[in-house]
Specification:
The chain has about 375 residues and is mostly helical. The chain has 12 helices and no strands. It is globular and about 65 Å long.
Length: about 375
Amino acid sequence: ALLVGAAFYLYGRRWRQPGRLIMVLAAGWWLGYGLLTLTFGLRLTPPRSDNWAGCLGLFVALYLYLWREGNRAALLLIAYGLIAGGAGFAIGDFVQMLGRAGWGPIGRYSALQQLDYWKWMEQLFGLIMGLGIAFGVRRLLGEGLAPVESAPPGRQLRGFAIAILLIVMPWKNFVTNVRVWIERGQLSEHLLGIGPRGWILLIAVMMTAILVMAICRHLKGALPLVPVDPFGRAQLLMLLLTWLFVVGDFTRVVSQLQSKGVLAVHVGFWLTALLMTLLVIRLHASAPCNLESGQSRDAADPDWRAGRRLLVVLLLVPLLIFGLAKLTLATHTEPLPGSHQRFAPDASPEATGTSYRPQSTLFTLSGSKP
């Protein structure tokens, strides 16, 4: 990303600002990872990568970039995301820990057990953070944020973006489906002397060719299937991506639906997709400014401030996280399966970064060796 940003920055005046932004974000990622993990040895997610450090550096770089640009509206939206993200992650992980520990009603009722609470944590985290950002966007639009004045993207860039979303992303993700089907023995018989991989590859190539043709016709304005209105095109793209990945992921696990946890997760996926579809159908385009006053405010307007109410919530979130951490510790007295100690005299080698072991390794709190 750093090299791509530099290339765009040097390409021409039109690409200088987006190229600079990409370079700033990429440099922030490297600084965060280099300082926190490589220099100070902070490894918080063994045995997985420490991408958190890079993300933190990227966040700081984005904040400084927006502050230097004077984009107060974007900084206000960051505050909403920061609050909702912190609270959402803490609440979602608290629910996940309750499920893993089998605490309270989860331990008493079998219907609440083995529901893959990790996935519920992810969805709850996304729901809470998404709601927080939605409130921030609603405030910006309600108080008359002026639309950004910029040249519309060219035909080639729009075609490239659509190809990434509808061709590259599915190819990268759904190729694992075929591998899983073959490993489980769901695809083994040859047809006309050609193995299942060959037939699936042929179908995928044909579908890709049709998509490429459709994208080309759309860019030429000769595809009536796509709405003319930009809002309608956004709705169609939203529904396409949502159902593409819901159905694609469902086909990978369809043979595992006898598992209560897998079934619960995918029922949640389908219900979420149905709700999103309902919301998209009911949405209508509206002007991005205050309809009552008819006035609009620039993103650099000094009146874009967090406000007393938002600052109070920001101060309460650390207390919420601390309280949930204490409650989490109270749900169990021994390490849960897959736990890793990090900040203790007998911390595991994975946590200190001296070595890595398989993810299934268990550690105890008594100081005994793994």
